[in-house]
Amino acid sequence: MNPVSIRELAKWYGEIAGLNKVSLELRPGITGLVGPNGAGKSTLMKILTGQLKPSYGEALIFGEDVWKRPSARRRLGYSPEGDSFYEDMSVLGFVRAMGRLCGLGACADAFAREALEKTGALEFAGKRLKACSKGMRQRAKLAQALVHKPDILVLDEPLNGIDARGRREMLRLFDGLAAEGVTILVSSHILEEIEAVTDQILFLAQGNVIASGPLAEVRGLLKDHPLKLLITATDPRKLGARLLESGLVTGIVFKVRGGLDEEDLVLSVPQVESFYRALPGLVSELGIGIERLVPLDASVEAVFGYLVGEEMGGGA
Amino acid sequence: MNSWLYLVFFSLRRQLRPRRLVVALILFLVLAVLVGTTGLIDPWKIKSFGRWIIELPFCRFFLPIITLTLGTAVIGDDREDKTLVYLSTRPISRWSLYLAKLLGALPLALGISLGAVFGLCAVASACGGLPLPLLEVAWMFLPTIALGTFAYLAFFGWLGAVFRNATLIGVAHVFLVEFFMGQVPGVLKRISISFYVRCMLYDAGSGHGIKPRNTPIFQPVEGDDAAVSLLAATAVFLALGMYWFSRREYRDLT
User: Fold this and answer.
1) Residue A114 phi/psi, 5° resolution?
2) pTM for this prediction
3) Fewer C-beta within 10 Å: chain B N or C terminus?
4) Which chain B residues are closer than 8 Å to A97 by Cβ?
5) A144 and B CB contact within 8 Å
6) If you count residue pairs, one on A and one on B, with CB atoms under 8 Å apart, how many are there?
């Protein structure tokens, strides 16, 4: 049984569809949730955490309907996007209280300290929340989601307000939790952050899942948008001519780099796998050295741009 | 159950906000000074004390205002602070969440209202002297105040769950329905909680001459009937609040 099953989930706000019959399964590991404002990310997260009632369909946590069976939320941790707190509580008091509300009894204090240590918040555990910086509050919010050691974590913009070093620590924490078998659904408007931590992406637009799965697979499905590869080679002109001749690329742009006699190749590659299979043989046949090979539009942001473009009916 | 009990305790602790307690303390001190100075000039009798202190300012102003402050805050505080999200994502059903929060406010509401009545009786005994022992006087009023506190708290709790501006609506209700409608002849006043509180008070103090100024116009009900009505109102508003809250989504509550 998958930790999270969403079946034909729809949510209507009057005549506006927040979610439109979305079905998906989440497995242990990290899944990034990507979409523009109004795509339905928050609606999906709020239904999944039992805050909103679906208009149609169901959201199941280990087979239990999260709206109808509150006990299902025992296995769920949620870090909301908003910056609201019980301001007069200390960080430790807040996390401990949230743990006790999840059913932790006498062990709530120990669990709270453990969660604070994981999120790097133990050093300011005694500080009142109203006196904490944005970054500290963000860590406290994450700690309250982790305190009862849930099997599923739903994190809405968890890295907002955290500095670069802190973000790296958080991403390491998510990675560690995923390795322990926790199912994590994370949304962030900073797409590189999502990319740094997972290649399992769920793309949402206008209430629909427009693509999901490993990023490379999703990118590979975008046949109208050949992959753009930047190659730095010892003889770019010779390589470019050979590649065009072989039919492995559909377009080449020469890009001046540094001095006037230095050029990079930007290739349009329609079939990536065939290209990667053929390239080594071709390069050795021509006696050319490859110094650098970088995909230019395989990032989450680029794929998302193409997907949204297609969804809007225009193509990018 | 463990987490639900903790939520009751958590809610009680959240209610102990100094500003709220200061309001109650100021109102009590105003009444206490009034009772003390008046008693020193002209010693209190049970009838005058019951009528001019317990019935008029206490039951028709102090009690509704205190329970309004606490009752609307049951959900209102979390709604205002946007902290309901932390409660509604816990493994606690909505209706029991509402019940726990209301029960969390109850000890404080009872403590303030019963404590204030006891305090006023003590001040009246000390300044001017009531003709009965303090405990006997206090016991005459305490059951009425306790049932009134239940009913008002359940009503204002429900109001706080339904309306965003529950405090304003509550204040309007206190002045229009509980205070002014109480003066209107006929049966219309029976929709107010204060009517039944006063009926219980008249019944409890009947031996000491505490009664409506004009019985045919006031048309009181029996004390037992008034008590049952207050308990019924408590149960109905509590059930309404739990039902309403269990049907609401988080977006409706923020």
Assistant:
1) -65, -45
2) 0.84
3) N
4) 6, 10
5) yes
6) 67
Closest by CA position to A266, among listed A256, A252, A279, A278: A252
Per-domain boundaries in chain B: 2-248
Helix axes B134-162, B166-173, angle to 10 degrees: 130
Nearest to B250 among A51, A74, A101 (CB): A51
Joined tokens for residue A152: 């599923």
Residue A255: CA count within 13 A, CB half-sphere:
14
- A142-160: pLDDT as tens digits: 999 999 999 999 999 888 8
Q: How far is A9 from B27, CA to CA, in rounded Å?
A: 53
Q: Which one of A52, A85, A86 has the shortest CB-CB distance to B250?
A: A52
Give the 3-state secondary structure percentages of chain A, helix then strand then coil, rounded to 5: 40, 30, 35
User: Which tens digits make up the pLDDT trace of B79-96?
Assistant: 888 999 999 999 999 999
All residues of chain A having their beta carbon less than 8 Å from the beta carbon of residue B82 are 82, 84
B chain contacts of residue A46, beta-carbon cutoff 8 Å: 250-251
Give the residue among B52, B42, B55, B66 at the shortest CA–CA distance from B182: B55
| Helical H segments across A180-230, by residue range | 191-197, 215-220
Residue of B nearest to A142 (CA): B86
Residue A15 near residue A65, CB atoms below 8 Å? no
pLDDT in tens, B83-134: 999 999 999 999 999 999 999 999 999 999 999 999 999 999 988 778 888 8
Residue B154: C-alpha distances to residues A99, B109, B151, B188 (Å) = 28, 11, 5, 21
Judge whether residue A233 has pLDDT over 90.
no
Chain A environment of B3 (Cβ under 8 Å): 100-103
